[in-house]
Specification:
Blueprint (H helix, E strand, L loop, with lengths): L6 H8 L4 E5 L6 H8 L5 E3 L3 H9 L1 H6 L5 E4 L7 H11 L6 E5 L2 H11 L4 E5 L5 H6 L7 H7 L3 H5 L4 H20 L5 H12 L8 H8 L3 H13 L3 E4 L15 E4 L2 H7 L5 H5 L4 H19 L6 E5 L5 E8 L2 E8 L10 H10 L7 E5 L5 E2 L4 E4 L3 H8 L1
Parallel strand pairs: 1-4, 1-5, 2-3, 3-4, 10-11, 11-13
Antiparallel strand pairs: 6-7, 8-9, 9-10, 12-13
Length: 391
C-alpha cells in the first residue's frame, strides 16, 4: 500500500471532529486510506446497489447498524444521509465517529455543508505525488515515465499499464459520474471537450476559443469546466494580481491534477510517443504545478499558487506565496540548462521582490542540482525535497 501525506491530517481531524469528510477524484485512494487509518471501523460502500437501496429507503435503520460510527464510502450516492446524521452527531459528539468519503465534490459538499456545518472537517485526497510513490518504492524511474504514468495509486500499486487503466477510468467517469453530476445530454461532445482541455494544458484559459473548438456555447463550456473542477480532474491556476506598474495578464492557466490522464486524452499510448510530443514541455509544467498543489493540499495549505505574466511577455510558470513572500518557479523540460533559461526568473524577481536566489527555483528535466547566482536549479526528482524545505 502507498502511504499518503494526508494520513496525519486525517488522524488529527478524527481526533477533533465527530465527522470527517474525505473527498477527491474517483480512485485516488480514499477508501484504502480510511480502511488503513480506521481498520476496526465498519465500512459501508454505498456504490453497492443493495447497500445504497437500504440507505435510501430506510436511512434511520441503516445508520442504526453502526452505534459507534462507521466509514461511509461514496456517501454522495445517498446525499440525504447527512441530514439524518445531524441529530445523531448532536446527541453524541465523539470525535472521529463518522468518516465520509466521496468522489463528487458538488453532491457531497452540498449535503455536508447544509446538514453538518461546524460538525465536519473536510479533507481532499488527490492522486499520489511523486514523493509518496518514492516512499512506497514504486516511483517511475524516468521523467517521461512519471509524466505518462501519472499518480493514480492503482497504476503503481498493482503495476497496471497506464493506458489500459485510464481508458476504463475515462469511460467510467464520462458514462456514469458525469450523468450524476450534471445534465450533460451529449456525452460524446463532453468527452471531446475534455480532450480539448488536455490539448490546452499549461496554457492560458480562453473559454471563448475553447467553446468554439468544442462546438458549444461559452456558458456550456463554463459549466462543463466546473464539472471537471468538481471532479478534481482540472484546476485553474490564477494570475498574480499584485499592484505593480507593469500590466499583468489576468487569465488563469489550465492544469490537470494528473499528467497520465492528460497523456491518455491526447492519444499518447506509450512513453515513446510522449518523448517527441509537442506538448511535452506543457505536460511537464503541469506536472510540476500539480505536484506542488498536491503537496500543499495534503498538508492543509490552500491557495497561494499563481502564475505570472506581463503584457511584454515576461513570465514565470508558478509563484508560491508563503509567509516570507513569493517563491518563483520556472519549469524547463530539457535535460540541460542554458543561461537564458534563467532570465525570466531574474526579471520577475526584480518586479516581485524575490531577491534571494533560494527564493527562485528552476525545475528541469535533468539530474543535477546547481546553485547559481540567479536561482537554485532543481532536477525534477528533487522537487519534493525542496518543497519540504520550504514548508
Amino acid at each position: 500500500m502507498i502511504g499518503r501525506d494526508l494520513e496525519d491530517r486525517l488522524r488529527a481531524a478524527a481526533g477533533a471532529f465527530p465527522v470527517v469528510t474525505v473527498t477527491g477524484p474517483r480512485q485516488s485512494g480514499k477508501s484504502t486510506l480510511c480502511r488503513s487509518v480506521f481498520p476496526d471501523r465498519p465500512l459501508a460502500n454505498l456504490e453497492l446497489p443493495d447497500v445504497r437501496r437500504f440507505a435510501l429507503e430506510d436511512p434511520r435503520a441503516f445508520l442504526a447498524q453502526f452505534p459507534r460510527g462507521a466509514v461511509l464510502d461514496e456517501v454522495q450516492r445517498a446525499p440525504e444521509l447527512a441530514s439524518y446524521l445531524q441529530p445523531m452527531v448532536d446527541a453524541d459528539r465523539t470525535p472521529g465517529r463518522w468518516i465520509l468519503t466521496g468522489s463528487q465534490n458538488f453532491a457531497l459538499l452540498e449535503s455536508v455543508n447544509q446538514s453538518l456545518a461546524g460538525r465536519a472537517a473536510v479533507l481532499h485526497l488527490l492522486p499520489c505525488g511523486y514523493g509518496e510513490l518514492k516512499r512506497a518504492a514504486c516511483a517511475p524511474a524516468s521523467l517521461d515515465q512519471a509524466l505518462f504514468g501519472g499518480g493514480y495509486p492503482a497504476i503503481h500499486d498493482r503495476g497496471i499499464d497506464p493506458s489500459e487503466w485510464l481508458s476504463a477510468y475515462v469511460a467510467t467517469y464520462v458514462e456514469r459520474d458525469v450523468r450524476t453530476l450534471t445534465r450533460v445530454g451529449d456525452l460524446l461532445a463532453f468527452q471531446r471537450f475534455v480532450e480539448l482541455c488536455a490539448g490546452r494544458v499549461g496554457q492560458l484559459l480562453n473559454l471563448s476559443a475553447l467553446a468554439a473548438d468544442a462546438g458549444i456555447s461559452q456558458p456550456t463550456a463554463k459549466a462543463w469546466l466546473s464539472v471537471l473542477e468538481a471532479s478534481f480532474l482540472v484546476f485553474r491556476l490564477p494570475a498574480w494580481s499584485a499592484n505593480l506598474r507593469k500590466r499583468l495578464t489576468k487569465s488563469p492557466k489550465l492544469h490537470f491534477y494528473d499528467t497520465g490522464l492528460v497523456c491518455w486524452l491526447l492519444g499518447l499510448r506509450s512513453v515513446q510517443h510522449l518523448k517527441s510530443h509537442p506538448l511535452r514541455g506543457a505536460i511537464f509544467e503541469s506536472w510540476v504545478v500539480s505536484e506542488v498543489a498536491k503537496f500543499r493540499q495534503h498538508r492543509g495549505e490552500r491557495g497561494g499558487l499563481y502564475h505570472f505574466r506581463t503584457s511584454d511577455g515576461n513570465e514565470v510558470d508558478l509563484i508560491i506565496q508563503d509567509a516570507r513572500g513569493p517563491v518563483l518557479v520556472e519549469v524547463k523540460a530539457s535535460s540541460t540548462i542554458a543561461a537564458d533559461n534563467l532570465g525570466g526568473l531574474t526579471r520577475a524577481a526584480d518586479l516581485l521582490g524575490a531577491e534571494a536566489s533560494e527564493r527562485r527555483l528552476l525545475v528541469y528535466g535533468g539530474d543535477e542540482s546547481q546553485t547559481r547566482s540567479q536561482a537554485q536549479v532543481i532536477p525534477w526528482r528533487a522537487l519534493h525535497g525542496r518543497l519540504d524545505a520550504l514548508a
